[in-house]
């Protein structure tokens, strides 16, 4: 499987954030988006997830035969905001995500155990620390199987031990043939190609 981005341009609020963007990521590979705040890294991830229309250009996901898949059906987006509902239990957040995305993989309990959080399964998310909420958000990657992970500042609010868990998750995903596109100001601990957005 291969993600191909060609001549992509994005406009927000009447301002062109980037144009002529092009890169490719094959299965087992990761790309890291870098650049100053406001350059369009989050917008690019949103375009890849199918949440935002590009001004021009295209992004597509192809298999080995050149047949295209629906990007929005194959991508997992974990944004810089956790997207966790505070009033719901941790288990309910993950169950909802699994039903919404389909392709069930690990159970909520198994996903949380992988991230060292099995003990919060029955707690309301309002009771969690920011680091715990971030790990719950990352656990969504494990409850439904999708090949393309789109990660926006995935290390935010994580301590060193949790960052090591995230690095292992990403390495395992790549080893199984997955793809990753991440926006980050921090090293991810995996081999990546750098995609620079904006100047300065």
Shape: globular
CATH class: Alpha Beta
Sketch the major β-sheet.
Answer: 5 strands, parallel
Q: What fraction of residues sit in β-strands?
A: 25-35%
Number of domains: 1
Average pLDDT rating: 94
List SSEs in N-to-C order: EEEHEEHEHHHEHEE
The number of strands is: 9
CATH fold assignment: Rossmann fold
Which CATH architecture? Answer: 3-Layer(aba) Sandwich
Account of the 3D structure:
This protein is an alpha/beta fold. The protein has one domain: P-loop containing nucleotide triphosphate hydrolases (Rossmann fold), CATH 3.40.50.300. The chain is 30% helix and 28% strand. The protein has 6 helices and 9 strands. The strands form 2 sheets. Strands 6-7-8-3-9 form a 5-stranded parallel beta sheet, sandwiched between helices. A hairpin with a 5-residue loop joins strand 4 and strand 5. Helix 3 runs parallel beside helix 5. It is globular, with a radius of gyration of 17 Å. The two termini are 33 Å apart. The model has no long low-confidence stretch (mean pLDDT 94).
Give the helix/strand layout:
Elements: E1 2-12, E2 15-26, E3 30-34, H1 41-48, E4 56-62, E5 68-69, H2 71-74, E6 75-78, H3 90-101, H4 108-114, H5 130-143, E7 148-152, H6 160-175, E8 179-183, E9 193-196
Parallel strand pairs: 3-8, 3-9, 6-7, 7-8
Antiparallel strand pairs: 1-2, 1-4, 4-5
Helix pairs in contact: 3-5, 4-5
Give a quick set of tags describing it:
single chain; 200 residues; alpha/beta; Rossmann fold; five-stranded parallel beta sheet; four-stranded antiparallel beta sheet; 6 helices; 9 strands
């Amino acid at each position: 499987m291969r993600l191909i981005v060609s001549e992509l341009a994005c406009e927000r609020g009447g301002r062109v954030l980037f144009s002529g963007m092009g890169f490719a990521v094959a299965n087992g590979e990761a790309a890291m988006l870098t650049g100053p705040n406001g350059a369009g890294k989050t917008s690019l991830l949103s375009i890849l997830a199918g949440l935002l229309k590009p001004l021009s250009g295209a992004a597509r996901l192809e298999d080995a035969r050149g047949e295209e898949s629906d990007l929005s059906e194959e991508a997992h987006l974990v944004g810089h905001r956790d997207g966790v509902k505070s009033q719901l239990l941790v288990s309910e957040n993950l169950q909802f995500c699994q039903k919404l995305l389909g392709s069930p993989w690990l159970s909520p309990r198994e996903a949380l155990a992988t991230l060292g959080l099995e003990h919060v399964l029955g707690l309301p998310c309002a009771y969690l620390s920011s680091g715990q909420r971030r790990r719950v958000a990352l656990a969504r990657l494990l409850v439904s199987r999708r090949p393309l992970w789109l990660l926006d500042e995935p290390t935010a609010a994580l301590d060193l031990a949790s960052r090591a868990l995230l690095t292992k998750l990403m390495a395992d995903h790549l080893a199984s043939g997955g793809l990753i596109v991440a926006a980050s100001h921090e090293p991810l601990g995996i081999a990546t190609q750098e995609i620079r957005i904006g100047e300065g």
